[in-house]
Amino acid sequence: MSDVVAYEKQGEIALVTIHNPPVNALGQAVRQGLLDGVLQAEADDEVKAIVILGEGRVFIAGADIKEFGKPPTEPFLPDLCGRIEASPKLVIASMHGASLGGGLEVALAAHYRVAVPGAKVGLPEVHLGLLPGAGGTQRMPRLTGVEAALDLITTGRHAGAAEALKIGLIDRIAEGSPRENGIAFAKELLGEGKARRAVSDLPPPAPIDWDAAYEAVLAKGRGQIAPAMCVRAVQASVELPFAEGMKRERDIFMELMQTDQRKGMIHAFFSERAVSNLPELKGVAPRDVSALGVIGGGTMGAGIATAALLAGLQVVMLEMSPEAADAAKGRISGNLQGALKRGKIDQAGFETLTEKALTLATDYAALSDVDLVIEAVFEEMSVKKQVFEKLDAVCKPGAILASNTSYLDVNEIAAATKRPADVIGLHFFSPAHVMKLLEVVVPDATAPDVVATGFALGKRLGKICVRAGVCDGFIGNRILATYRTAADHMVLDGASPYEIDKALTAFGFAMGPFAVADLAGLDIGWAVRKRKREEGIDPRARTTDYPDLICEEGWFGQKTGKGYYIYEAGKRAGIPNPKIMEWIEAERSAKGITPQDFTHEQIVRKYMAAMVNEAAKVVGEGIARRPLDVDMTLLFGYGFPRYWGGPLMWADIVGLPDLLADIERWAEEDPFFWEPAPLLKELVETGRSFDDLNKAA
Ligand code: T1G
């Protein structure tokens, strides 16, 4: 047998065990080993049943995604599944951990399936821009019916063992090890004289209104095509004989394999794992963090405290008065109620977290023994410096002092302490217990193990951590400021905020920039504009006046019921606020601008070019380590459509030369805003892509 698949005989039962860490992915050697194992068992007359199982923490995580994009090698997975199913011996899959994608498809090719109680199953191929390509869309409906199959296949979600049993995906749940369960189930089936049961021989399920299902899934996918194509594959499982259904599935799979969305989503899959694998952290041990201090119990501080409590940390919440501390506790309890409702914690857990794990304090001395403190106080440098001076005085040696600032200079904050090596930025995104992005902002003096601790804490809180250098806005907010300005410029030049929002939701954003601003609160942008005016704005910068007029009316968006949109009570979607266009038209004429028409394509192109150009500057200056770091920041902090993989993967897909040419053309009119990024020019000159930089990092 191969070194990734072991063969063993226990009396009349053959055990074929995959051992391909870390997740038993079905690379070519594993597929060959499985085939050889089945053939070896079939050649042995004493063997009456074959058990397929996985060594390690999962059964099989699926096809080997690292093989995608390379020429397929035999045995092809669909053929292997067909061959397993055709075996004259009884084949049992004994599952544990994750059985996903091709892994579940191998199990569906078996005649019977047994799983441990904690097993998870799923066909998550849509998250890679694909569909199950080894019979999943043909076999699953025969076992579960169309509705349940479409739910799992089009969402890619995982189902637990109990649900899998209920819908007929597995036959048995057993408490033993996969090996024990497989042998016991095989003996039971043999003892009862059970026949082989090829799923493909089962009758096709009842049909549904396929076009309605297709349209509904397409609408839900917000531009993603794979989920809708899954409907057509499942439709084939009902309307065509099995072999023809398999061919239809294969054709759709190969079609999706060629799409940009498959490229973008696989880039996202590997990048969300690679983004926290930093060379400089290799071998650097993080400091232990079990008790966390949080200063400031407003929305951000309460969110951070909630995330820490849910991750099992002790939390000391410091506020300036007992009343403020109680208000903070109220916000945290409210957040935890949400976790309770979603089943993330039970009632006992809720009480433990709020009554035991959380300590309220109003005196800095309460922080003397915590391992790490995160301040989330008012975004004013003088206030931050006072806080850090006090922390420096009371916190134990080795305690890490972190700021949640979203743009202030963390070098300057560190310099206010005697322990700059222990100071770091941990920039959470609101709501901090929900948003997955954490920018780990690294000032010059910060010690490597403090950076490692920031990443370890972020991972423990379930975050996607991105290393950021120190600049105004770090990675995400700096890039946001630029593409948001591009939108404002387009408004001055003739596009309406509402057309821009529509164009970008059609591109794949959940919301356009103006609807997002209404959601976040227009006063936030107002404060940033005031700060930047105080700091001094380059006279070459094109500025817009109408946004301030909206705020001067006290219209801050959803929270005041009016902003770019008017929000009627109880309705999330607003209707355009007519006053806005009046102000915009007045400003255009005051500035002598003749409004031009913008197509949705032109809006997206300009908006994205601004995003890419600033992102290229952020990478070129070393604020972001690699292009993938920017992609993950925009995906997990700013709602960038995942099926593009991120703005710099989008740029690679659409082509850097033409993008640079557009930017250079726009720079002729506005050389200050559209100054081409040196890195973008260098990549175009050398014929490289942003992804080439990721691979070289
Ligand atoms: N192929 C290759 N590498 C994989 C992999 C896969 N399928 N799954 C995980 N890895 C790597 C991952 O990149 C990481 O590598 C390491 O394993 C640990 O992963 C024909 C076409 C199984 C739930 O989409 O959901 O089958 O960073 O950190 O948190 O129909 O991995 O250490 O170098 O995520 O314990 C369908 C994807 C494939 C499942 C475990 N299957 N994987 O989570 O570990 S397409 C999937 C996961 C397919 C067929 C189709 C998770 C996990 P590194 P990890 P984890």
TrEMBL record:
> Which chemical reaction does it catalyze?
a (3S)-3-hydroxyacyl-CoA + NAD(+) = a 3-oxoacyl-CoA + NADH + H(+)
Q: Which UniProt keywords apply?
A: Fatty acid metabolism, Isomerase, Lipid degradation, Lipid metabolism, Lyase, Multifunctional enzyme, NAD, Oxidoreductase, Peroxisome
Per UniProt, residues of the 3-hydroxyacyl-CoA dehydrogenase C-terminal domain are 473-567, 603-688
Q: Name one GO molecular function term.
A: isomerase activity
Q: Name one GO biological process term.
A: fatty acid beta-oxidation
Q: What is its main location?
A: other
Named in its record, the pathway it takes part in is: Lipid metabolism; fatty acid beta-oxidation
State the family named in the UniProt similarity comment for this chain: In the N-terminal section; belongs to the enoyl-CoA hydratase/isomerase family. Belongs to the enoyl-CoA hydratase/isomerase family.
This chain's protein is named: 3-hydroxyacyl-CoA dehydrogenase
